[in-house]
Write the structure tokens for this entry.
Amino acid sequence: MNTKLTKIINEGQPCRHCGTSVIKRAPKEKPRGDRAFYFEYVLWCPKCRRVYLVESAKRFWSEN
Ligand SMILES: [Zn+2]
């Protein structure tokens, strides 16, 4: 297969596995104090439920 690996960075991009448009969603995992960063949101495929982590949604605790 010649599948080009496109990075999923925006809402509405097709899921790499099933082609469904991904949607923004609050991450399942709650922010934890023992980590330097957390994700403000993730991109989520409503069909196959795959979660894509977005670099631009990364937030550092030091910003607070
Ligand atoms: Zn999918």
